[in-house]
What does this fold into?
Amino acid sequence: MDSEFEPSIVGFFCNWCTSTAADLAGTTRLEYPPNIRPIRVMCSGMVDPVYILRALLEGADAVILGGCEPGDCHYVSGNYKARRRMTALKTVLDTLGLENDRVWVRWIGASEAPKFARTMNEITAEIKKKGPSPLKECWST
Amino acid sequence: MATDAIIEVSEGKLIEGINNLFGELLKKGLVDALLIPHELPSGANVVQTLITSPEKIKSINPLAPVLPINSARIVSAMTKVASSAKKIGVVLRPCELRALIELVKLKQASLENLVLIGMDCFGTYSVCDYGKFAKEGPSPTQRFLDNAKSGKDDPLLREACQICEYSVPINADLTIGLIGMDLNKGFLLHAATKEGERILEGLGVKAGSIQGRQEAIDKLVAQRIKRRDEVFARTIEQTHGLDKLLPVFAPCINCHNCRDACPICYCKECFFDSPTFELEADKYLGRASKRGALRMPTDTLFFHLTRLNHMGVSCVGCGLCQEACPNDVPVFDIFRLVGSRLQKVFDYVPGRSLEEELPLTTFKANELEEVGH
Ligand code: SF4
Ligand code: SF4
Ligand code: SF4
It folds into this structure.
């Protein structure tokens, strides 16, 4: 694989858990790659698949949705609903052969800065290995 | 209390027999009105008509094998603002009934004061084929009955119908049963609810039962499922992967007709008609300059993928998206395939039950634990 390939990865992180973990990773100097473009959302449950599809169609090499651990949602059940929605999204993509392994979901609690950094390293390495998204250069969608 | 009755008709007079029954419903005041398929005077089409006078029963034709629109949309339009104060018998095919149940769950329709009258369905022709057969003769209804009697699917049925395994209505108060009946002699009336029983009683028909209906249904459904799975396999073969999917959507002009015909797509303002897509020229140029070019109108694949995500789990397989497509994009094949996968994942059958919650509005705490780790 082209070792120069630097994937661009969009992260939708919930305000209460994963974004807090990201901030904590920053302040405690845990390193994670600059490939991640974080977007803070109030809850993983408000991320409609349109946002993720849009990112992929606009050329993101991967998208990661981060929310609170199941059971810990600030709004009680947002992440449970997100889990179903993401299952649906992955099913749609998989049925059409559209690489659903470019969509990641991870539950990362507010205090889990090391898990946050580890996960961001992991997705970046995986997507580097996988190579650029075929949608990246595609103008005809 | 009788739940089944056989309505006998004189040799070859099935249509008259069925129409007579609907006339009785109105005359006896068992319903105040009927929403029922009616021949247009030209004979070229049969459309849903709201009938209040028994006089107008003469030219109804609920057997006509044509489905211009999914009538769940009509029932939604009639009952969404306020439910009916009078009793309306709505005569629907299984895919229309199932769509109606989904729309009730989506709070887009009310069943209050409706009598759901379901018709067994062998399938329908496209509106164009129907009009052609009507012109050329013999009548499409007759052509269709002859095929139904032979037990074989007419290859000119719409593809959606050839692979439809819901030939018998679910959730009807009253079902007009045709499958497994000797259609020269009569048809079955089956009441599945108190409301259905009230009508059977009001009609004063005597109880009866038939042999072999279930076997005939099983046989038809098995035939349909086999054909469905062949279509699924072909669809996967032809659409799997971006390299195949892009050519499939190449003829799409992003007109959104498929969405407008779909009974499940109810949003007052679809995301794709929203200001999100009303961009200044500069924004278009910005998007274009990222890759050097931008397909116009934009966001064709985005539209279809989003629609699949939003409504695929409730797709009833009526195939009206396909009928609406001006350019023969195999949009039904794709929606039916993806819909069936989604429905399997959530163990959901659209239209099966009013009590079952829509999969994407609910959840279980202990499920899908592999998602997210
Ligand atoms: S899709 Fe099924 S229920 Fe609907 S018209 Fe065709 S055969 Fe009948
Ligand atoms: S997607 Fe097509 S087949 Fe499915 S419910 Fe809508 S119109 Fe009917
Ligand atoms: S698939 Fe057909 S009906 Fe749907 S938007 Fe494209 S061209 Fe229009």
The mean pLDDT of chain B is 94. Strands of chain B lie at 4-8, 33-39, 46-51, 88-92, 114-119, 174-177, 186-191. Chain B has 14 helices and seven strands. Residues B 252-258, 324-327, 329, 331 surround iron/sulfur cluster (ligand 3) (CB under 6 Å).
